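To: structure subgroup
Subject: Chain for Friday's discussion

All,

I'm putting the inputs and outputs inline so they're searchable in the archive.
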Amino acid sequence: MPHLEPRLKALRIRGADLTAVAIIGLLAIIATSIGFVPVVIYSHDVFIPLDGAWRVLNGQRPHTDFATSLGPVFYLVEAGGLALAGRTAKGLAYASTITSTLVAVWAYVVSRRRLTSGASVAFAVLIFVLTFAPVALGDPDPTWHTYAMEYTRWGVSLMCILLVESVVSESSSHAGGLSTGIICALLLFLKVNLFVIAAGLVGMSLLLNWDVRRFRGMAVGFFLVAAAIATYLRFNLAAMWRDFRMAAEGRGTSVSVSRLISLMELNWFTLVITMLLAVFIASDKKAEDLKSRYRYPILCLAVFGASALLLITNFQPSAMPLGVVFALICCSRLYTLWKHGRHLKSMASMWLVFCASGFIMYSMGIDTMSIVHAGVLRHFSGRFLLTPFDADALSPFVTFGPKDPPERPVDGQWLVQYVNDGLALLRENTSPWDSVVSLDYANPFSFALKRPPNEGGAVWLAFGDPTFRYNPEPSMILGRAAVVMIPKWPTAIRSDFEGGLRVYGTYVKEHFNKAAESKLWILEKRNEVP
């Protein structure tokens, strides 16, 4: 009966709410029990969030007080995790679990009235897994555990939520626009390339379905978040622009047509399945007008274009989460059309939805298996004889690596040996108040020794190429540091490390003197009062 439909819909939503709460809660408990995931690859990257968060906890601000191509959102979240974990490396696990839970809840709240009940719960699960999975996005092996480039996962998860808000605009409102605006602002202050791509998707959705209420909500949400973060940065947006400009020049060298073509070859099936779904939706002859009828195929191309841009502007070999979410949106839409008797009662449509569902689950496979494997590895990691880092702050940090000496000590016992050798040299030859800067890729020492961070510098030093127009000034990179550590066996790519020495070596010679040396490090002290 018609008058029972609203009540039945409310009951379905209430049931989905309870299911979503139970599943997200269970996932959060599993993530908490896993704790700090043993790192298998890109282990040296762990020192980037640790150093950045340590600086934030000591009152420094990204861009204003130190150089970084990432915005303050990432470091603020990681700093919160460190604070909860007693300022130990376990804070990275706390930050990951809390972020995954909050983003999954956000995803469900956004989708619960836009998608079917089953699809909205599936979307929340997908977003939790996407946000938490301890592998670099697009890596093919679920055993390659890492915290490297975690910010990309966080940003892409927010973009997936924004995609649902943009595509399914039938229930758009001030609140929906507010959420979109908040996401755009967070992306701007998380990683600028994600913001640019997200802005393009939002612009396309507004062109296809203009809604002044949604636009006003977006403007309010964006302004509130942007104003708060700009205030935190003391409105030093020029410094943020400087860092973003340097990052754009460095990343621009990796963008090429040949790389784009190779990436498309790896991800062509995503376009095929999503376009088939969009075309089936467009075959609805009862659509109000041509624009609404062909809206899904147009948005499908926009999503694929956005996914391609994500691939070529990030260190990401494959994976198109936006395409997976778009497929889920299309499945939800097809089910709704079928339920209302519009069309799609043929076997072909049912097989298409079935295949798309399989595609969605398969696309989540690597991330899901990585979480399962992380739990198993974490449980058995205590049985392995691993050399620990010689610092209480790094005690939760477990890293596996190759048995034979690698070209760069980025993983396993080689990274531990590299860090411990530097720690011993610093303890023997400096005071607890001497700030330290490293001319290697990252600086593990300030956080590990709980020393005041250098005023100035960068959370990672990957500039180094003398041909770049926007290398940071030596006085900024060395800042007011009392000590400079120069590695003999750098974790950085050798050409990058040598480029850094060419750019900053003269300044080091003018302002620092060699004070001590170990097997793996040279320690130089400032020859003047900073």
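Points worth raising on Friday:
The chain has a mean pLDDT of 87.
The chain is about 60% helix and 5% strand.

D.
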